[in-house]
Specification:
Four copies of one chain form a homotetramer. The first copy, chain A, is an alpha/beta fold. Chain A is built from ten helices and 17 strands. Chain A has two domains: 121 residues, Rossmann fold, CATH 3.40.50.720; 231 residues, Dihydrodipicolinate Reductase, domain 2.
């Protein structure tokens, strides 16, 4: 048995905690992955970083990400900081020869994203993007079924991602509601997941985009008075895919009663598939033109990503996606292949996000996206 | 008790049967409506019309709609013929001084629809359009709850109407798939219902439209070989409403596994409402910003339209909407008021349908609709 | 075409209205049945009976059931009066040579039920019992699928019928809560439907019974003060069937949030079936040992009982069961065969109800039921 | 900060893995618990135990449970071995002064269980039983709502636990299907969870039991030919609770289409609650006599057990129950109070299981259970 791969996580907030959970558990769940050593957690406050490292299982705590990135005993740098820091940290880690996992979004703008893709292309280490919903077993099963042709050719996808946390007009102003810090609102935050899924499920690139953005609540209370909201509360888009399918997308952070409702309905020439994230372990599968929707509980040993968990009927939670994501990276390192999704996948998603905004600015007119392949990966083994 | 109102139905097919059911049952269900006499059924084939009249409960059978429309003992003419005949028959009946009910769509094009609205304005009889889904008790409850402010101001509506009857590429060519006979495809057939509901639920007119149409199956088998499909299989639209809400609309006749899935999700500033036509008797209601979706079985005596039916828990079927629609017309006649929906409602819907097609032709760009009030009615008592 | 069959309904309340709806509509829905003439409605109050007859479509109104039963132009007597009148009326009608339909329950006690069965055996007319849930299309489909062996041999049935109308401790005393007028409470009212379904779905008789009754609310307000409730609020039973299956039954009129929840889950050696009455048009079907539950919308033309109604996706309501029940009787008259269910089916159900009460009185011990075939009918064509 | 508590897990199979996950994660999720050190994993095979220890995060691996139990640096012994070993191991660990957690079932028979309760009463360490479903957040919320009186007084519980793994008649013989090794079949395996929930949700003891057992498949294939199954495939029971409620219980391992369906419906005088384990993160709550069932996604920070996990809408999986269970034990150790559930809770459940079997043997007659309080704990803080 070779030496374990040393891991460092940059970031101690929500995503830092979720990724720490993945590194702590990946070896216990998946038996075919290289061993890891949780070497360092990086945060901004020394005391709180040390406490977090103790709680989350890290050997060292640091506030100096650059020195950590250059440590010889660190093989994997996992970037969980706010989006505007992704490019600098990821590029530095790649230049230091590390394998890099970056939490989504890849970057705040397309130029930065392109620099990151370029850095990844020239790096000795592998670069992976953290669209964790690719590791929802039900969505991985959906993708596998579609790839096998079980619902025929995909004609249309009806997709939404609805949350309710901004329903209240008095919900306070935050950096997430300013264009300069967040890029966009519901579109980037929620739409990026949907667009990634549309690409992953069909295996196709988006070639045409129509979009619309709405901000229902133009002002929100700041510490010293009302402040102007400069991002969207809700967004709609219609995406034409290279393979001929059309996807509609409806995302909102002002949808009362919906907590985390990523919903997808895929219609093919010979069946359909439905999914809702709040029912994480279920997939609805309609096979054949006259078929009826069957509710599959995606917990069988032969279902994708399930091989390392529990017996049938024992449901998984949201955090399991991060564990499976870590396993994907570890297997890719062991095999010396590109993990999925790549930085190029992140760039492809950002091009679509940008096009939605441009279409909205142009009154909804269709924006063509170049057919240049942004490097969409399609490794059969990822949906085992 | 005064003499019963004489009724004639024009048309013996699916809609003729559904409307006959309404006239046969309306007096038994609703006790506050004038009595009716089922005088004449009009069809094209003498023998089959006679047989249908016997089975459906009509005294006379006729193949001459003009003579029936002029009979003195006919008070109500109910037009259930194919759409291209609506204008001629309805205008003739109005000119003969009759009350007229026209099954949707009002007409095949906007010019015809405008002539019908004009005829209705100058007629002594009342004119009503058969958007029967206004009489789904759950949708009537939704409308009442929204009108009462129970979910606050409506911000967005996510709507779809999905069917599967054209999934099969070998489904044969019919008049419904040719632009010259059907006007449009899924858009007019299914979208019209959705647009009417969006208007009814919000009480607002559509002021801006973005749309897209798709025909997935360009050819279908005809009797002598492949024929060209000239209407849409699926359509999408984004509707801006005068009150500030935005509605997204996704309609398809190629959605495997969906039989008759009109689905609506209305998000307000203080709650949400959900409905699916395949679960006709249920409404999902989320009250308050922190509320949870409650499943209401809409069969209580105090629910809208329920007063004449059965005790709580005894579900209604699709045909009940026609019975309640007939009751609306009869009550309007008794009260001398305009029934709802009006021909003007039909015209308003058609303007939106046209705008969707024009937006699609213009690459998705937003079409402005004039703010001229097309006569949207808003009688509080209709949602009792 | 022969003369129509003359029909009289005895009873003008809830069931009289429901059965009137059936006679009014049966010819319009089902095209293979003899024509009927709605001749007479019988009630107790002359004025109200006349008004009801007018509203419901009856030619004559009468308060003298005996004279109506003897009219030469009456061929079918449909008994919808309270249960304690069933035996006298049904036997008189059979002795007058009429075909008889009796609303459930057949009678209040086993002795009466046995006299009715004897009268039916010696009559020239046909005798049918009104367990209308045999005409729920989804339940008819369930029965057909089980008969075809689609779920293998039935091992167990988990059944419930839950309502909420007695949850309130202040719900007033009525005749339904006294043993002398109602026989039993939830057991007879709700349990009888479940037991009939268990027999119909399996095609087997009940051979062993364990039961328990509970009255949670011992007193309820009467007009002059609290009165004693002498029937059960809830009942449980475990039924052993001749074919080897076991059915559990849980019925209650104090189940908050449940309006009319007849629920059935049938487990076989090779699949399972689920149904809930509040979702009248749906059946859940699991085929095979590894199958997943598929939600079937039971509105296709090839589904049982659907041939006369509407196109796929257009749901039926509760009242459709009475229309289909009337069609079954009319077809049986035309064919000269026993309609289903028979009076003997009613007697078989009552034997089980009695056994549940006896088991409860004996502390839950198992009661054996004789294997004498009570005449369970099993006409393949009834589940078309 | 004091020294961490040393933990040893005995057992490396399914439950050993689940409990290891709990110890590995408890400190990262819950911030108010004492730190733990994962000191030793005990198995039967040296090589496989060492490999499991490495994968699961244990410092030492051992095949000698007695020496581990006596180590000074072990404070908590967590018994995850097969049931027939529980008594010996737990008693030894208690006698060595350790805190003990025993996976359910407590023991195979009542005599053993009583010895374990006695040992726990005299021990210096704390003793806890692993009914992990007490840590399903939705069930903890149900318990809290009932305790607050939100559905009034509980009248009835309709409960089931349905699985499908024995549907296939050719599923092979195992130790789980022999009375001498497994005690009972579905009754003990699944019924024990249901009975524990019935007690926990009501806070009441079972005082009367009626039961029935069925073995549908009497023989199953063994290595050398058919062998006799000596435990139940399915069981039913009716439980009378001290507080006046009645619970029905329906458990089966031959229910096609049901993977892990623990289902509970609790009806009170003023509302109802519903739960299904396959939808782990949902609770259905009906408040008031006229209320409608609302679907609560139990992922809010204020919901029980949720304080340490993820933001609202991010669902938990089955394994989270073990993490929360470990936290309960750690908090109890820190506070010096009895954790819940206790060994006495396990004994109480076993008394009910025994009574079900005795009732079945007696033809279903009701068995009275003594009112001696078996030590049911009711710590308000456990459902935080």
């Amino acid at each position: 048995m070779s030496a374990p791969l040393g891991v460092a996580v940059l970031g101690t907030a929500f995503m830092g905690r979720a990724h720490s959970s993945a590194w702590r558990n990946v070896g216990a769940v998946f038996h075919d992955v290289p061993a890891v050593a949780m070497r360092a957690l990086v945060g901004s406050d020394p005391g709180r970083t040390r406490a977090a490292a103790d709680a989350l299982g890290w050997a060292d705590a640091s506030t100096d990400w650059r020195s950590v990135v250059e440590r010889d005993d660190i093989d994997i740098v996992d970037v969980c900081t706010p989006g505007h820091l992704h490019a600098e940290m990821a590029i530095a880690a790649l230049e230091a020869g590390k394998h890099v996992l970056v939490e989504k979004p890849l970057a705040l703008d397309q130029a930065e994203a392109e620099r990151m893709v370029a850095a990844a292309e020239h790096a000795s280490g592998l670069a992976m993007l953290g669209f964790n919903y690719r590791r929802v077993p039900a969505l991985a099963l959906a993708r596998a079924l579609i790839a096998e042709g079980r619902i025929g050719a995909v004609r249309s996808i009806r997709a939404a991602y609805l949350q309710d946390w901004l329903v209240d007009p008095d919900a306070p102003m935050t950096w997430r509601l300013r264009a300069e810090t967040a890029g966009s609102g519901a579109l980037g935050d929620l739409g990026s997941h949907v667009i990634d899924q549309v690409r992953a499920l069909t295996g196709d690139e988006v070639v045409g985009v129509r979009g619309a953005l709405r901000t229902f609540q133009r002002e929100r209370p700041g510490p010293t008075g009302p402040e102007r909201v400069s991002v969207d509360d809700a967004a709609w888009a219609l995406l034409d895919l290279a393979g001929g399918a059309t996807a509609s997308l409806d995302v909102s952070r002002v949808a009362a009663g919906r907590k985390n409702a990523l919903e997808l309905e895929v219609h093919g020439t010979d069946g359909a598939i439905g999914f809702g994230l709040e029912r994480f372990n279920e997939l609805t599968v309609t096979e054949g033109r006259d078929g009826w929707p069957a509710r599959v509980l995606v917990t069988e040993a032969h279902h994708p990503l399930l091989e390392g968990w529990w017996p049938p009927g024992h449901v998984l939670g949201w955090d399991s996606t991060f564990t499976a994501q870590a396993a994907e990276l570890l297997r890719a390192i062991a095999a010396g292949v590109q993990p999925e999704p790549s930085f190029a996948d992140g760039l492809a998603v950002q091009r679509v996000l940008d096009a939605v905004a441009r279409s909205d600015a142009a009154g909804g007119a269709r924006i063509e996206l170049g057919q240049t392949d942004p490097g969409h990966t399609d490794r059969a083994e990822t949906t085992r």
